[in-house]
Amino acid sequence: MAVQPPVRVQGQVVQGFGRGSKELGIPTANFSEEVIERLPTAMDTGIYYGWARIDQGDIYKMVMSVGWNPYYKNEKKSMETHIIHDFDEDFYGSWLRVIVSGYIRPEENYNCLDDLIHAIRNDIATAERELESPSQLLLKTDAFLTDPVDTNQS
């Protein structure tokens, strides 16, 4: 990761490819292309971790894929956030704020869906562990997440 964390990103949750929940059993919240285009140019593709908040809800740990998802051969770059919490319903249209605070690994391709799911589960475990450090826990209280939502920013 060439860019130094933390990276703060926000925007409306949009419909993604529909694979997270259905194929992988790991639901994701997706940002629009406009939000993805505003990422720092020095931010490498790969798997990241950090903190997420939907609207004015609780702040949760998250793991995020930024890139082309080689297993699925995406033609458009995506930014898919898995919030480490079980939600009762989708939150399309909600305002998502994330602080990307660490890098796990580069994007990889996989021979089968089970290998991809296994890698994602390992990424989630890594994120949960890393986010327990004092410096990471401090970011959970960052004003970007705790202040009221300002949907005029992005």
TrEMBL record:
BP-aspect Gene Ontology terms: FMN biosynthetic process; riboflavin biosynthetic process
Primary enzyme class: transferase
InterPro entries: Riboflavin_kinase, Riboflavin_kinase_bac/euk, Riboflavin_kinase_dom_sf
Pathway: Cofactor biosynthesis; FMN biosynthesis; FMN from riboflavin (ATP route): step 1/1
Functional note: Catalyzes the phosphorylation of riboflavin (vitamin B2) to form flavin-mononucleotide (FMN), hence rate-limiting enzyme in the synthesis of FAD. Essential for TNF-induced reactive oxygen species (ROS) production. Through its interaction with both TNFRSF1A and CYBA, physically and functionally couples TNFRSF1A to NADPH oxidase. TNF-activation of RFK may enhance the incorporation of FAD in NADPH oxidase, a critical step for the assembly and activation of NADPH oxidase.
Superkingdom as given in the UniProt entry: Eukaryota
Annotated protein name in UniProt: Riboflavin kinase
Cofactor entry: Zn(2+)
GO molecular function, one term: ATP binding
Keyword ATP-binding (UniProt): yes
Catalytic activity: riboflavin + ATP = FMN + ADP + H(+)
Riboflavin kinase domain mapped to chain residues: 2-132
Keywords for this protein: ATP-binding, Flavoprotein, FMN, Kinase, Metal-binding, Nucleotide-binding, Transferase, Zinc
Enzyme Commission identifier(s): 2.7.1.26
Keyword Phosphoprotein: no
SMART domains cross-referenced by the UniProt entry: Flavokinase (SM00904)
Organism: Tigriopus californicus (Marine copepod)
Cellular component terms per the entry's GO annotation: mitochondrion
